[in-house]
Amino acid sequence: MLYEATTVWKAGSLVRWRQGWCGHSKPRRSVTVCPRAAVVGIDLGTSNSAVSVVENGTPRVLQNAQGNAAIPSIVGIAQDGKMLVGQAVLDPPEGYATPYSRSQPGDSQPSVVRVLPTDCFHSFKRLMGKSAEEVERDASRLGFSVGQGDRGEAAVYSPVLDDMLTPEELSGWVLQHLKQLAEEQLGEAVTGAVVTVPAHFQQAQQGGTHAAATQAGIPQVQLLQEPVAAALAYGINGGTDGDTVLVFDVGGGTFDISILQAFEGIMEVLGTAGDASLGGNDIDARLADWLLQEAAARGPLPVDAKAWAMAAAEAAKIALATADSAEVALPGGGAPIVLTTECFEELTAGLFQLMANVLEALGEALFVEWAVKPSLAVPGRAAASSTSNGSSTNSGSSSPSSNGSADTSEAGSSRAEGSGSSSGKDRWAPPPRRITQVALVGQVTRLPSVQRFVHRVTGVRPQMGVDPAEAVALGAAIHAGVLLGQVNGVELMDGSYSQDLHSRATGFSGWQP
């Protein structure tokens, strides 16, 4: 779907980085440190969240006691009323068990306190700021009861508490958990935070996020669009020639793309589009269904087969980020199931097509000229097209400087459509834009299949200097330092400084919590 935010924000997203700090040109690595304040950046994600700080001029994402930077956005309520948040749901304390526990206690341990699936809440960011009617389709996929709160808003039902819990409350507990993690490592109370939100979030969703942060006990709260945060993390500034930047964000439960214009450090978000029901979770679901079919063909399935399949699907997906195939052990033993990259691309081709649809919609709205039409770059279809043409394409071989110059029929067709020279489009339409920089966001974008898809569509090799899973959190930390006095060096195009930066850098100038 194409969000309303696709319209161009004239002054809502302009940020300027001063160049030359400490002799460097990359703003992410060259900031001027002011007196320390306990400010943090928070990436509040659908599946995972992260908290980050700027220390000694460098942003970093904090890790929990298990050494993980990605904190699961999950809340579980045990049968004794104890609340488990984040990693504790995956690795519950002694005496507790959850549906996501890595090791399940046997029936011989009746004293174990359990968190039932109906009291284990995840993906509640999808419900933020929406009514019960609006989330009816998503509700059937969540595995817990979704109903109506006191004000008609979407809420979840907890059998243990016998009460409805709003997405703001659940998000508030996750934010409080992240705040406590930061305070333990910083040794002082957090005085403020920048919390990121998707660029398409409307007023009710923004307000819900702000309310959740306030509930978490964060004194000063500012919101920042996720694509702007990602661009800050990658240090994209456009230089003197300017850049048109594609931020390609595949989260756990959402898919978002944004196109930014950057010139000499000034960044403007031209538009954003996405699918609020498409993300890494959907990839896991496709893989899990396939694993269940493969396992069923080899013998009877255990009672917990679905839980096994979901865990195995996620592990296989992660393995494919660094290998051409992944082996999945069967719960009952025997020869493992082998998932190859080719099989993965075949299983997920429909999801790539949905991504292509979003790219084409935003490209049409903003007059973007793709190197290859996105629907022709879908894995499987792209390979077939390449074979039928009898020649190789620019996928995996061209450099950023060759953006848009691939000698293929698909690319030529895309250019013709983008320019309007042969498609009958308005001759007075503005000249087409070409993507010159790509920033990847989200763990899923570590997959070579995703990177090849984006490379083929844009003709540009994605930026690889930042961990995609941490990009938004790192950018939020940089912005937090600016807004709350920890970092100097960011200015707006009119020369004003950080006290005015929030409303104008995020496009939320008209919103009041």
Tags for this model:
Heat_shock_70_CS, disordered C terminus, 513 residues, Nucleotidyltransferase, domain 5, Actin, Chain A, domain 4, alpha+beta, four-stranded mixed beta sheet, Defensin A-like, ATP binding, ATP-dependent protein folding chaperone, 3 domains, single chain
Q: Any overview of this molecule?
A:
The protein has 14 helices and 24 strands. With 513 residues, it is of the alpha+beta class. The protein folds into 3 domains: 16-67 and 172-234 and 469-506, ATPase, nucleotide binding domain (Nucleotidyltransferase, domain 5, 2-Layer Sandwich), CATH 3.30.420.40; 73-169, 2-Layer Sandwich (Defensin A-like), CATH 3.30.30.30; 238-462, ATPase, substrate binding domain, subdomain 4 (Actin, Chain A, domain 4), CATH 3.90.640. Strands 3, 4, 5, 6, 15 and 16 form a 6-stranded mixed sheet that branches. The radius of gyration is 23 Å and the shape is globular. The model is unreliable at 1-35, 387-423 and 489-513 (pLDDT under 50). Belongs to the heat shock protein 70 family.
CATH topology annotation of the largest domain: Actin, Chain A, domain 4
Q: Give the rounded overall mean pLDDT.
A: 78
Name of the CATH first level of the largest domain: Alpha Beta
Low-pLDDT parts are 1-35, 387-423, 489-513
Radius of gyration: 23 Å
Structural class: alpha+beta
Can you count the beta strands? 24
The CATH homologous superfamily of the largest domain: ATPase, substrate binding domain, subdomain 4
Report the span from N to C terminus. Answer: 27 Å
Strand content: 15-25%
CATH-defined architecture of the largest domain? Alpha-Beta Complex
Oligomer: single chain
Number of helices: 14
Domain count, please report it: 3
Shape: globular
**Roughly how much helix do the residues carry, as a percent range?**
25-40%
Question: What does the main sheet amount to?
Answer: 6 strands, mixed
Keywords: ATP-binding, Nucleotide-binding
Region (Disordered): 381-432
Family: Belongs to the heat shock protein 70 family.
Biased composition (Low complexity): 383-423
